[in-house]
Design goal:
Oligomer: single chain
CATH topology of one domain: Isoleucyl-tRNA Synthetase, domain 2
CATH class of one domain: Alpha Beta
Low-confidence stretches: 1-29
Shape: globular
Number of strands: 33
Distance between the termini: 60 Å
Strand content: 15-25%
CATH superfamily of one domain: Valyl/Leucyl/Isoleucyl-tRNA synthetase, editing domain
Length: 963
């Protein structure tokens, strides 16, 4: 078609790009053109194409076998893209949530168009404390509440036009899903870690070793001479999932144990701000520490941000040092781990964590005579002092205990002996010593540790330096390098030499040994909650755990009306809500452990699994979501998760927030490695490439009381902000309901359409960086899409306005340079750069007279397709295509057209740009200098002046330096 240029476009970035009546008047009419791309049209286009995609199964990705098998090019590369799946919040999405989801969708669409077989699923992480707390606030049952929240979030995500394979959608609360969560737990429960083979093995193989005598039992008793109960106790010592007593975060007000991440820095619950106490309880644990070295080593094999790797390494906290035994006055020896055994001669006290079990065995019955009053407080006896101090420490978080500047402690009334000197030193409990680090005991060497120095000054203990500090060093602990002093045969040695020498001495004299320890502790895996996966475990009269047969899975969570944990006092034991399901708490199974093979009645485990359980393996269920026979079909798992080039494999791109850098990723890696060891998956790591997206921040406003007010109700007047008549202060924070600054995507859909929201969020900045949300700026992205529409469609008739002419050489070069730049940006997830280059091309089309050539329109639509799929589908259809643009080939740049034939070079005079010249791209240095000096403006500025020199950078600039 050939029509006047005014029929297609009305200039670049004018007020007429808006959809308001005022802008319509400015463009020469009283009403909007009938085919203006506005919110109403955008919403109609988007809903229509979303329905079409759903009906056609556009995003259904075939598996190589099984129920989801389908046809695809077996030679095509595959790509598994995944988001850290969301928790279905009761308040639904705000515009900050979809940032990463839009980013992965754009990348997935780009890769589909580039010839990849792309798997991009989505699910919901729906068990856990947040759902219980929200349900408690609303008065709804957690299941009802969760189902409603998932429905709301699903609708909001679908409205974005995300290209997820909806056949693979899941929620961790689905019975058919957590059946396999329970199955994985049983694999871990029925496994042990063979340190020699460095892998998990079935517990049956451990039994074979005991039966054959290849492995001795803990007490040295022959397996054949042990009772069935003794054998079970022995096996439980090895299981990767086991019951063990551990210090936990007990929140009486919530009636449950909390994970460390659910406790604030000031020792209160994240949910509800209730007091949390540390106390020992028997809980389910997972022996993740057995995998510490492998978890560390394999970080070098994955493509992750280095900052995340550092966080995981620090969390695992591998330390090389020595385990040293200190004999006590009475009772067992005290063992300490230290990375500085060379400082042992400076030991002036022994410090135990208040929870340390040795404290009960060592504490004296009465205070020795002439005890320093600073050591005992007001207690009448050492035991009384210990109990009071434990209560004090239990009310503090680990962070508070470590950061507490006022060093406190109590003496247990006993001493222990420093093995190298034979000198007695007092044994204290001190709150800054944590049971979870090392052995829970430390030798206090104040000369080389500032906390020990502060403690020694507080309690009047001697301070002995064992490393020579520099001259005139201030009176505080010295942690640097230097020769050993006050250390007998170590004197004069450097640190490394002294460490080796003292370790040799300790081993030769039976007082210690070289060892490696970790900050990482076994994973606490129990929660005294209702809303979680039931354990597939029962107990008999011995109190020892037994596995529910795999054929009896799933163990279904019972429907409870009275499901909420009850508020208890500090001294009470947890009361798991499942204990109220009176019929459910017992179960009848044939476990073959009685007289004969008949059925027996057992008591169920009443705790539930933590929220982490379901998120540890959901990527595998995406692969084969309807399989009732196995966790995942081996062929399917191998296709999607194995690297054909011999790498670690796993999810090809995993996108999510950096807040999950440690726990979720560490736990998932642990589960995957167990499954790998047992032959259920084909590679050692679950996530090959990790990418952390940034966060959207928004303005938040506080009144004079410091209370947040609704951001949408704040007006700006003369540079100040008002909520009604009251002035408020503005700052920027993470978008959410707590700051009352959330903007819902539904509002943006209604005002501009989903494609505009997608464009704005991708254009705000690099995907891995935070960015501020400005609702009034969204209009800019909407205007871009309006200009694209006007370049291809007549706003009065709705007809396509492209021409069948070929683009001129200049436009063709422009198009191919844009293709190359957009391809490069898309490949690197720099979607803001891609949009900028597409905008430049579109503006070039707007500046030109006449309709857009069809070949250029074709390229423009395909470049836009990953970013604005609905608008692209509409324009693709108008261009006469009967197939979806989703699988249209992404444009490929012609290398011959990428080199610019002419370039613009700035010309400076004394360092300041005074003119610009257009020259041939292949111009020589001499010719470039000559062209600059011949420029009219430069001639004016240099007339009569002496030119000292001319600095020419080929293709970049010319600088004329005057005397």
């Amino acid at each position: 078609m050939n029509a006047p240029a005014s029929a297609y476009r009305s200039g670049a970035a004018t007020a007429a790009d808006s959809e308001s009546p005022e802008s319509a008047a400015e463009s020469g009419g009283d009403e909007l053109p009938p085919y203006r791309y506005n919110a109403e049209m955008a919403n109609e286009i988007e809903m229509r194409w979303q329905a079409r995609w759903c009906a056609d199964g556009t995003y259904h990705t075939p598996n190589p076998s099984g129920p989801l098998a389908g046809s695809y090019d077996a030679s095509a590369p595959k790509l598994f893209i995944m988001d850290m799946f969301p928790y279905p919040s009761g308040s639904g999405l705000h515009v900050g949530h979809p940032l990463g989801y839009i980013g992965t969708d754009v990348y997935a669409r780009f890769k589909r168009m580039s010839g990849y077989v792309v798997l991009h699923p989505m699910g919901y992480d729906a068990f856990g404390l947040p759902a219980e707390e929200h349900a408690r606030q609303t008065g709804e049952h957690p299941r009802t509440n969760t189902v409603q929240n998932i429905a709301t979030m699903s609708r909001q995500l679908a409205r974005l036009g995300l290209g997820h394979d909806d056949r693979r959608s899941l929620a961790t609360t689905d019975v058919e899903y957590y059946r396999w969560t329970q199955w994985i737990f049983l694999q871990i429960f029925n496994s042990w870690y063979d340190a020699e083979a460095e892998r998990a093995r079935p517990i049956a193989e451990l039994i074979e070793q005991f039966e054959s005598g290849q492995r001795a039992t803990a007490e040295g008793t022959a397996w054949a001479h042990m009772s069935e109960t003794e054998r079970r106790v022995e096996l439980d010592r090895y299981r990767l999932a086991y019951l063990g007593e551990a210090p936990v975060n007990w929140c009486p007000a919530l009636g449950t144990v909390l994970a460390n991440e659910e406790v604030t820095a000031d020792g209160r619950s994240e949910r509800g701000n209730h007091l949390v106490f540390r106390r020992p309880l028997k809980q389910w644990m997972m022996r993740i520490t057995s995998y510490a070295d492998r978890l560390l080593a394999d970080l070098d094999r994955v493509d992750w941000p280095e900052s995340v790797k550092i966080m995981q390494r620090n969390w695992i906290g591998r330390s090389e040092g020595a385990l040293i035994s200190f004999a006590a006055d009475a009772g067992p020896d005290v063992e300490v781990f230290t990375t500085r055994p060379d400082t042992i001669y400076g030991t002036t006290a022994m410090l135990l964590a208040p929870e340390h079990p040795l404290a009960d065995k060592l504490v004296a019955d009465r205070w020795p005579s002439s005890t320093d009053p600073r050591w005992i407080g007001d207690a009448a006896t050492p035991r009384e002092a210990l109990e009071a101090y434990r209560a004090h420490a239990a009310a503090m978080s680990d962070l508070q205990r470590q950061e507490n500047r006022d060093k406190t402690g109590v003496w247990l009334g006993v001493n222990c002996i420093v093995p190298t000197t034979g000198e007695p030193v007092p044994v204290f409990v001190a709150d800054f010593v944590l049971i979870d680090y090392g052995t829970g005991a430390v030798m206090s060497v104040p000369g080389e540790d500032q906390r020990d120095w502060d403690f020694s000054e507080q309690f009047g203990l001697p301070i002995v330096r064992t490393v020579q500090p520099p001259p005139d060093y201030e009176p505080k602990a010295y942690v640097g390098e230097g020769p050993a002093i006050n250390s007998s045969f170590l004197n004069g040695m450097g640190s490394a030499e002294a460490k080796a020498a003292i370790c040799d001495w300790l081993e030769a004299n039976g007082h210690g040994s070289r060892t490696v320890t970790y900050k990482l502790r076994d994973w606490l895996f129990s929660r005294q909650r209702y809303w979680g996966e039931p354990f597939p475990i029962v107990f008999d009269e011995t109190g020892l755990p037994l596995a529910v047969p795999e054929s009896e899975l799933p163990v279904v969570l019972p429907e409870l009306i009275d499901w909420a944990p009850r508020s208890l006092d500090e001294s009470s034991d947890p009361e798991p809500p499942l204990g109220r399901a009176t019929e459910w708490v017992t179960a009848t199974y044939d476990l073959g452990d009685g007289d004969g093979d008949g059925e027996r009645t057992y008591r169920r485990e009443l705790s539930t699994m933590p929220q982490w359980a379901g998120s540890c393996w959901y990527y595998l269920r995406y692969l084969d979501p309807t399989n009732d026979e196995v966790l995942v079909d081996p062929d399917v798992e191998r296709y999607w998760m194995t690297d054909a080039a011999g790498g670690v494999g796993g999810v090809d791109l995993y996108v999510g927030g950096v807040e999950h850098a440690v726990l979720h990723l560490l736990y998932a890696r642990f589960w995957h490695k167990v499954l790998y060891d047992l032959g259920h998956v084909g590679g050692p790591e679950p996530f090959g490439r990790l990418y952390n997206q940034g966060y959207i921040q928004a303005a938040a406003y506080q009144d004079q009381r410091g209370v947040y007010v609704e951001a949408s109700e704040v007006d700006e007047r003369d540079g100040k902000f008002f909520h009604g008549d009251n002035e408020v202060t503005r700052h920027f924070g993470k978008m959410g309901k707590s700051l009352r600054n959330a903007v819902t995507p539904d509002d943006i859909y209604g005002a501009y359409g989903a494609d505009t929201l997608r464009t704005y969020e991708m254009f705000m900045g690099p995907l891995d960086q935070g960015r501020p949300w400005e609702t009034h700026s969204v209009i800019g992205s909407h205007r871009l899409l309006q200009r694209v529409w006007r370049n291809l469609v007549d706003e009065q008739t709705g007809a396509l306005t492209v021409s069948d002419d070929e683009p001129d050489a200049d436009l063709e070069r422009w198009v191919h340079r844009t293709i190359a730049a957009v391809t490069d940006a898309m490949s690197d997830l720099r979607f803001n750069s891609a949009i900028a280059r597409i905008t430049e091309l579109n503006n070039e089309l707007t500046r030109r007279d006449g309709p857009t050539p069809r070949p250029v329109a074709d390229v423009l639509v395909r470049l836009l397709a990953p970013l604005v799929p609905h608008l692209a589908e509409e324009l693709w259809s108008k261009l006469g295509n009967s197939t979806t643009v989703v699988y249209a080939p992404f444009p490929v740049a012609d290398p011959a057209l990428l080199a610019a034939e002419v370039i613009e070079v700035p010309v400076q005079v004394n360092g300041k740009v005074r003119s610009r010249i257009t020259v041939d791209a292949a111009i020589s240095t001499a010719d470039l200098e000559a062209a600059a000096l011949a420029d009219d403006r430069i001639c004016e500025l240099t007339a009569g002046a002496d030119i000292r020199r001319v600095v020419t950078v080929p293709g970049k600039l010319v600088n004329i330096v005057l005397v």
